[in-house]
Design a protein that fits this description.
Low-confidence stretches: none
CATH class: Mainly Alpha
CATH architecture: Orthogonal Bundle
Mean pLDDT: 90
CATH superfamily: Globins
Radius of gyration: 14 Å
Number of helices: 7
Largest sheet: none
């Protein structure tokens, strides 16, 4: 069996560490923190773990709301999306994820931009 991107990210433990660091970075960003004021962060972190696990070939299915529905009330723009993606890239880099693997994760995220921004 060949190694998946999920495996290269360190499996569940690696993804857990990336998600924790990612949301720490997002919540420290003054331009983004207001979007999370009324959010159950434990639930959001779980959905993010499921999402990253799914897009990297891991053993789970994402069961959260579709991206358009989940973000419809936020009035996000391209700068917000880029900032969040940047924090994810930084968290992946800090975890020692190889450039090619970071690009694969960010590509999966970029594919959702229109839905997240409700375009």
């Amino acid at each position: 069996m060949s190694e998946t991107l999920y495996d290269r990210l360190g499996g569940a433990d690696g993804i857990e560490a990336v998600v924790e660091d990612f949301y720490d970075r997002v919540l420290d960003d003054d331009s983004l923190v207001e979007y999370f004021a009324d959010t159950d962060m434990a639930e959001l972190r779980e959905h993010q773990r499921e999402f990253i696990t799914m897009v990297t070939g891991g053993p789970t299915e994402y069961d959260g709301a579709d991206m358009r529905t989940a973000h419809a009330h936020l009035d996000l723009d391209g700068a917000d999306f880029a900032a969040v993606a940047g924090h994810l890239d930084d968290a992946l880099a800090a975890a020692g994820v190889a450039d090619e693997d970071r690009e694969a994760v960010l590509s999966a995220v970029a594919d959702l931009e229109d839905d997240v921004l409700n375009r």
